[in-house]
Amino acid sequence: MPAKTKKTYLTQGRNSSAWTVTLILTCIYLAWSEIARWFTGTTTQTFSVEKGVSHDLQINLDIVVAMRCADLAVNMQDAAGDHTLAGELLRKDATSWSQWGKGKQIHKLGEGDDGLPGWEEMWDVHDQLGAAKKKKKFPKTPRVRGPPDACRIFGSLDGNKVQGDFHITARGHGYREFGEHLDHTAFNFSHQITELSFGPYYPSLTNPLDNTIATTPSHFYKYQYYLSIVPTIYTDDAALLPLLEAVNRNPVHHPAKSVFHSSHAIKTNQYAVTSQSHEVPETYFPGIFVKFDIEPITLTIAEEWGGFFRLLVRLVNVISGVMVAGGWVWQIYDWGLEVWGRRSRRRGSLGVLGGSAQKEKMGYE
Ligand SMILES: *[C@@H]1O[C@H](CO)[C@@H](O)[C@H](O)[C@H]1NC(C)=O
Question: Which protein residue's CA is at the shortest distance from atom 12 of ligand 1?
Fold first, then answer.
């Protein structure tokens, strides 16, 4: 019965090649996800309580307000109630509103906090470390084209470690200010934020309020931002963690304090923001108010990158694992067919014999 033999082998051959293809696809899929995981590395986040350490917190600001510089007052008040004329420490340049926010990805802030980028976006350690290497100067104000109807306020200033209040109000219409009266039609607190960050100034690090715009047709409008700041350490070398923690606890006197200026670790500050902005009656002070609180914790984000050899070992493991398991499954399948075939043979229904049972039978003949 040569015809029957041929048919049986064919059936089995088709089955096993389908199985081989399945195994190869599984291998490719698993190897692919392994390689993808290797590229991203594994990131761990840990929080630790920061006890009583207090050092000054630098605030970096770059904002364009749709009013003339001469009409604006910039103030800061810290937890102790100390009042700083922040306007004197920051630079104010006349500019044209329409010159800003072009060619950049600028997003609009809603009334609530929708539309703000999530924290997850800031958790790529390599992006953060890479961005921290870039230059640390505020860009120059471009030459004014168009009406000088806006004011760019920018620079860095020292704040208090615990909390603070930063406000931009109209001349003569801020707290503790009883100056000359400014015509209300000049009020326009529409603004574009290019940078609002805390700690060392790293222009390319993304913060929630960077590149945001808010406009209002109302002269009496109060923009309010509540920022919750979390000191954050980024590192791509998990072996540095104990040292980083020690330096963080004693940032001023620790002999290795420069570790946060290395290419493997930075210390910066992330923040979450909620905004509550609304129109106010004419008896209130319109303006831009930023209130910030610094959380008494430190977030440490460490990334481990496996190295090429480790990837190789994992790939070999995955592929050989799939092959071995695949072989077992095949054998069990084969054995199952055999048992089933024997049973059906015993019942005498030769017509439904499985492939290997048939083969076995032929072997006996
Ligand atoms: C303020 O300026 C912006 C941008 O030019 C404009 O869209 C808005 O209507 C102005 N608001 C007021 C109150 O003039």
Answer: 217
> What would the pLDDT profile of 334-345 be if each residue is shown by its tens digit?
899 888 888 877
Mean pLDDT for all residues in the chain: 78
Ligand 1 binding residues, C-beta < 6 A:
66, 97, 188, 190, 215-219
CA distance 232 to 266: 8
In a domain, 101, yes or no: yes
Distance from residue 217's CA to the centre of ligand 1 (Å) = 5
Of the residues 280, 304, 328, which one is the last residue of a structural domain? 304
DSSP secondary structure of 195-219: EEEESS--TTS--TTTTEEE--S-S
Statement to judge: residues 288 and 324 lie in one domain: no
User: Which residue has the CA at smallest separation from atom 7 of ligand 1?
Assistant: 215
CA of 90 to the centre of ligand 1 (A): 24
Residues 34, 72 within the same domain = no
pLDDT tens-digit map of 114-128 = 444 444 455 567 777
Do 201 and 342 lie in one domain? The reply is: no
CA distances to 48, 241, 301 from 246, rounded to whole Å, are: 12, 9, 16
Domain check: are 276 and 128 in the same one? yes
Q: Which range marks the domain in which residue 338 is found?
A: 7-40+307-364
Point out which residues pair with 155 in neighbouring strands. Answer: 61
The alpha carbon of 140 and the centre of ligand 1 are apart by a number of angstroms equal to: 24
Domain count, the chain: 2
